[in-house]
Amino acid sequence: MIDFAFKNITRQRTRTILTTLGIIIGIAAIVALGSISEGINQYITASLELSAGKIIIQQRGSGGFQGGFAGSDITDDDLEELGSIDGVKEIVPMNLYFSMGRGMSFGPGMVIAGIDPERSEFLVGENIEMHEGREMEGGETGVMMLGFVFAEQRDLGVGDYFELKDMEFEIIGILEKIENPNVDDSASVNIVDIQELMGVDTYQMAYVVPFDIRDAEAIAEEIENSYEKLSATTPVELARQVGEIITQIRLFTLGIGGIAAVVGGLGVLNTMIMAVLERRREIGVMKAIGATKRRILMQILTESAMISLIGGALGLAIGALVVFGIVLASGGQLPAQVTPGLAAGSMIFALMLGIVGGVYPSIKAANLDPVEALRYE
Amino acid sequence: MSETVLEVQDIVKTYNQGLPNEIKVLKEVSMKINKGDFVSIVGPSGSGKTTLLDIIGCLMRPTSGGVFVDGVDVKELGDSELANIRGNKIGFVFQQYNLIQTITAQENVEIALRIMGKSKGDAKKRAKELLELVGLGKRLNNKPSQMSGGEQQRVAIARALANNPSIILGDEPTGNLDTKTGEKILNLLKKLNNENGYTIVVVSHDPNVTEYVDYTIHIRDGEIEKTTNGTTTNK
Ligand SMILES: Nc1ncnc2c1ncn2[C@@H]1O[C@H](COP(=O)(O)OP(=O)(O)O)[C@@H](O)[C@H]1O
Ligand SMILES: [Mg+2]
């Protein structure tokens, strides 16, 4: 029956291809969006881990966490004032330099972070181990420390030089890989170097560290209330914002999935109704030579399930390719991947579309009166 | 003496019952077909031949009256059991051949076997043998569109024989063929009856068929008018 079903769906090649295309697009969209939203989720969760217990300060109305803090200018005076707030242990400013990089024609390129070398744990975490070389030392300039993936992708090693604009940095250390893209894809230099590179004496953001983590919310609120210029975000708040974004991405994915379901299912329905109409006589013959209703029903259902499964498999493959492309374009920053669960889920979803779209036509076919069907010209 | 393969008792068929265009097509038709018979049913167009054959072949249920295939009262059977009767006990040959256009001659015969549960390998083998029996051993892989009408009808006959049915039913099997080709088909049916012992009923409005058969049932306006012996001598 399977071989016969395959012959049948390839009869009206163009129609089958178009129907399959509907399923392919739907499933590819679901797979791509699903894994990207999961990737963004992971990425942001990993970022949050690093900033746990710290308050993030930036200029009000600037690009924000997702915007790379563009347009934020925090001065030394601002830092001094922040430092005088009760309960604040220390303030660590940071600058991010965005570069399209050389030889990279697509994607966000790379981000070079500037930080006080003695506070590099704010960038790469507390328990960091060196894969090669050493950490930056306080006051040391003109040197650079790289995450494992950053170095690997660019084939850089300790002792190599890295050029940014008209400055040259000696690579002195490469971190061990820890499966956190924020660390593995990092490149850090002395914040003084970044300021020189960008020609500024301000900072894009700063971490405010309270003595007691439990005071973080209160301190953030105080900063928000007393400084018109600055905004303060705690990881808790950030987590909530991020949670909202992720929920929206998921809803969007669901929406696309829903549209795909309607379009793909209607496509299968339409194709199978036409196939049943065209094959009325043939179905009549099948019944005359002994086919039961059940058999005709299964035949048509097998055909529609086959269309949707082929579409699902191709959609899955294309969706995975798109995800791969996006991961590549993000320079490996976005850890999006097609999980087995998502792959299985999308195939089951595709199969469901085929079966739902095939039910009505197959029942119609099964109930065809053979005498009518055979007289029909 | 002879074993009865098929019996119909007082069959009535009314189309559009209860509607203004109600039409009584068969009026209490009774007949018996014995094993090994080669029978023709002739009558003018519209006399109810196709209706009768469809009822005999269990494609359609009569409005009243009984149909017995190999002694089984089909009135008692459900849809799927009826389908099994059609598959196992009855072989249909139609005027328009009704082959599936997209598959080969051999596959057309195979399908009848596969539907009745034969394995792919067995079906392939038997389909080949049957096509050889009807003289198409060299056309196994041709599609219907690559064959003449006579050849297509031979494939249809091979398909009808697939499950070794108790009775072969042909509705105007020569109706779409020229006289000469039609004669060849009738000779093939005659051979299958004589040499292979198949029971065959052929419906036609063409009086020529009566020369090939053992006896002929004449039908007019839904009633059996008379039964005559065939003019054939080789029985
Ligand atoms: N489904 C149907 N509905 C109404 N009338 C029908 C139907 N099928 C056949 N008839 C009528 O029944 C009569 C007998 O038809 P049929 O059995 O096809 O005769 P034959 O095969 O001898 O030409 C014709 O008058 C035909 O118009
Ligand atoms: Mg007729």
Verbal overview:
- The complex is a heterodimer of chains A (377) and B (235).
- In chain A, 56% of the residues lie in helices and 15% in strands.
- Chain A has 377 residues and is an alpha+beta fold.
- In chain A, strands 1, 2, 3, 4, 5, 6, 7, 8, 9 and 10 form a ten-stranded mixed sheet that branches.
- In chain A, helix 2 (13-50) runs antiparallel to helix 12, helix 9 runs parallel beside helix 12 and helix 11 (293-329) packs antiparallel against helix 12.
- Residues 103-108 of chain A have low confidence and may be disordered.
- With 235 residues, chain B is α/β, with parallel strands linked by helices.
- Chain B is 32% helix and 27% strand.
- Chain B has helices at residues 49-56, 79-89, 105-115, 120-133, 149-161, 179-196, and strands at 4-15, 23-34, 38-42, 64-69, 72-73, 90-93, 167-171, 200-204, 215-220, 223-229.
- Chain B has a six-stranded mixed sheet.
- The longest helix of chain B has 18 residues, at 179-196.
- The two termini of chain B are 17 Å apart.
- Chain A binds chain B through residues 1, 4, 7-8, 11, 281-282, 284-295, 370-371, 374, and chain B through 54, 57, 59-60, 79-80, 83-84, 86-88, 92, 94, 98, 100, 102-103, 111-112, 114-116, 159, 162-163.
- Adenosine-5'-diphosphate (ADP) is lined by residues 15-16, 23, 25, 43, 45-51 of chain B.
- Residues 15-16, 23, 25, 43, 45-51 of chain B line the site of adenosine-5'-diphosphate (ADP).
Give a quick summary of the entry:
The complex is a heterodimer of chains A (377) and B (235). Chain A has 377 residues and is α+β, with helices and mostly antiparallel strands. In chain A, 56% of the residues lie in helices and 15% in strands.
What key attributes describe this structure?
heterodimer; A: alpha+beta; B: 235 residues; alpha/beta; 6-stranded mixed sheet; binds adenosine-5'-diphosphate; binds magnesium ion
